Fold each of these.
Amino acid sequence: MLQKSAQLKKENNMKVSVIITLKKDVLDPQGKVIHQTLNDMGFNDINEIRQGKYFVIDTKETDEKIAKEKVKDMCKKLLVNLVIEDFKIIGSQ
Amino acid sequence: MLQKSAQLKKENNMKVSVIITLKKDVLDPQGKVIHQTLNDMGFNDINEIRQGKYFVIDTKETDEKIAKEKVKDMCKKLLVNLVIEDFKIIGSQ
């Protein structure tokens, strides 16, 4: 019984995903290079490409709301440069 | 009238987003370093962090299905290393 409850708890671990993008007015040289390369390869109908980062954070936290709050805290303290980047917590499971 | 139609067309340009992640069994050293750093900062309840890439591709294509197909093609030909990475087209607007 205890084992089952422990297993259940493990299964309820939250995985939270975050997308980090450059703010709209910040230049994205990587995106520009990729755009140019795709253009040279024949993909001619692209207006713009912007690159961002993506993190999946697998936490021991089981409560969705708390897990998201913690990830938000991690973003502000380490993962995101708030001067030039925005972040969006897109999901959890 | 023509101008309005052109404007409408511009507004209907598709923006397609792609998430690129390392396959499950591929080592993610960047994720490990971030995990360790967050751990040292006091976030002790993390099981694992995995980092990925994110692209927003703004195309001139107005048909959602065609736009997604083109982005899939770009992923296979340039953006994604299919040996070690997976990709997921997550949305368009």
Amino acid sequence: MNRFVLVSLCAILSMQLTSVSAQGPDQPNFVIIFADDLGYGDLGCYGNPTIRTPNLDRMAAEGMRFTQFYSASSVCTPSRAALLTGRLPIRNGMCSDKRRVLFPNSGGGIPASEVTLAESLQEEGYATGCFGKWHLGHLPQFLPTNNGFDTYFGIPYSNDMDRLNDAAPKGRGAFLEPKIEYWNVPIIQDLEVVERPADQTTITRRYTEHAVDFIKKNKEQPFFVYLPHSLPHIPLFRGKEFENHSARGLYGDVIEEIDWSVGQVLKTLQDEGLAENTCVFFTSDNGPWLIFNEHGGTAGLLKDGKGCTWEGGMREPGIAWWPGKIPAGQVSLELASTMDLYTTCITLAGGKIPDDRIVDGLDISPVLFGEGKSPRETIYYYRGTELMAVRHREWKAHYYTQGAYGADARKRENHDVPLLYNLHHDPSERFNLNKKHPEVLAKIEKLVKTHREQLKAPASQLEIPL
Amino acid sequence: MNRFVLVSLCAILSMQLTSVSAQGPDQPNFVIIFADDLGYGDLGCYGNPTIRTPNLDRMAAEGMRFTQFYSASSVCTPSRAALLTGRLPIRNGMCSDKRRVLFPNSGGGIPASEVTLAESLQEEGYATGCFGKWHLGHLPQFLPTNNGFDTYFGIPYSNDMDRLNDAAPKGRGAFLEPKIEYWNVPIIQDLEVVERPADQTTITRRYTEHAVDFIKKNKEQPFFVYLPHSLPHIPLFRGKEFENHSARGLYGDVIEEIDWSVGQVLKTLQDEGLAENTCVFFTSDNGPWLIFNEHGGTAGLLKDGKGCTWEGGMREPGIAWWPGKIPAGQVSLELASTMDLYTTCITLAGGKIPDDRIVDGLDISPVLFGEGKSPRETIYYYRGTELMAVRHREWKAHYYTQGAYGADARKRENHDVPLLYNLHHDPSERFNLNKKHPEVLAKIEKLVKTHREQLKAPASQLEIPL
């Protein structure tokens, strides 16, 4: 063997070795697309009559569509904290009874002691990028690049915060006829403000372009893309190409642009030959914001929306796509939660779930691969620090019920005998069966007792002033 | 050419000619599958979380799913009369303000002067079969075989009529824990009662078997199969194979058996090589019967159900399937009605629409074939003989609103300024815009004026005693 052949051979071997270790079948890529305030009934494949979502419908047809998939809270900050830590917000201080989410005048954020999904995957050699709305603290120590992400581009909190009271009309008018200049929300690149106010008409497109670029740049190593769109949170904005795109009006335009974004991500994965090694999951942080008339979405047949613990507040579309791994065209009735994405992704990446704390996420890969049932049997519905309701299998017991927003939110009912619904038979929570099934209530009461005994709730991050 | 060759050649030619004339591309077969009280939100592909409908979902994926498809009435008899005559029930006496449907003690039925879809197709050389619930009169002159069908197997009216008060518990108990022996509904074969009481646990299977046999027997000529299932009308029954089949409970079992039935029909058409020449349409007569708790279905995000003129009462799933003719995987937002099936089928069969009367049905084949928009722009919502609401394009004006059943049904509101909803933006009819759009109300008022001027309402068939 001459020297040239030997060198060539070594080069080829080393390329292959690099390729195997960096992008081996044991380390799939992950893309989590997280909409903001999108309801259970807002997609074509979940029954919406006038919003067209061909890309999400195709994602469902080629993958798995969950019908009983939950976010961990009915509002933004706690829901996002749970997704990225695999833990109920009550365990990490990311909820409060006084302020439901973080605001521009908040001084708190995601505690350093939490191990985020991005940190775990970074540890396993993943490239990690976050493109979109963060809302886990806007001070530098709380931002994505200090919490496991290599890079970040997006807004630090909701798109209706930093309202400019001189520029915007008073009351709801600013929301119902929105203009960019009514708000002063910044766009942050890594740790720097690069634009203020954010041009929200181009924001969905720009998040998408950043995500696509990141995938292309990092295709030789495993990667995690977190793409938390800041829409359809109100105020609604969409790009020029999506003006009057939807029969549903402005709200539909916004959803159809997000659907386009999903199509771009899937196309990139397919064009780059990455589809068979990438798990994509689409869901939303909480239900639709119903108080804003046609600017809010719909939870379909589910009761109520964002801000409350009826099903419409926390049950979400959930679509998983991974050609060749997730069987095509499946509708799954299995119970699952955003927190399960944490545990499932880390497990599939070969990482370790933190064992010095309670992690609520469970590994749902048997469901995804069509190999078994979900390990999840229980959903805890918190409002702030209060456990309002508990679902165990098909049964949901409401200890308290309370309206979502405005005057309704002050109407709180305490149910000495909890309301009880069979969500399989009665998804709209219409028929209380608590007199008929005391044994179910007893079983749920036991679960609650154990849950409370194990619970250590730290001080709230949401109440810390700037 | 010797005599043998000549005879053989003639035989072959004549077979081909027969085959072309009997089953030519100009005369497609039609199968209309009509469920009873199935709601807009009751199928998987319309967003139901716990009812599995893989066959209907496949039918939609291979065909066209309508999101704005309407029955012509919110109750049974008038809805069926409209489907089979292409005319609003107000035009043919098949509605009334005193009795909303026909009963076993009714003496009326479908007038002989009406030209049914079956009669028109029979005229064009079609074999015609009806397998299921009729409900257009149970006296001989009103039965299917005297109104255009070659053969009939099914029940003459609803499955909750002919209640045996000695056998059944009083009140709602009979409906909520149904047994076959509580009702004395007959099964009629052509004109003869062949079974009484009908064994409703096997009824969906038997309708299906009759339809499948009919297709196989008539495959050499054009055929029309009308398969109006008598379920999921309450009381609910299903076959042994479907007991505990569905996570949704008894109601889900019933829908999943109907889904199985659809699968059998499609499979038969494919096995017999008839799929490319057969148009199959699935829909329902009216919305879900909500007063019977978990025994009733759901209209999803639409308001209310059976018996009223809110959207849940009359908007229905509508799925069209015709491989090679109807493009696959389409979701159509076009407006259409069961009455349009009448006109479309007769037109495609080469028949003539009666021109001595007003026919409300329109030819929607351009929509089906992906070639154009729907000619339909208006939906009239009648309750009995009263025009309650009118939809024009995306706008719906309510002149009167009234609850569906029970005490609610006695609460009627007259709207001097009609309520106005944009159904594209607001499918759940939540945001009245009548103050904002007087010009739309004026336009609709004009349509109503013309409609009323052209209207000749004959005496009601539903009020004729036995």
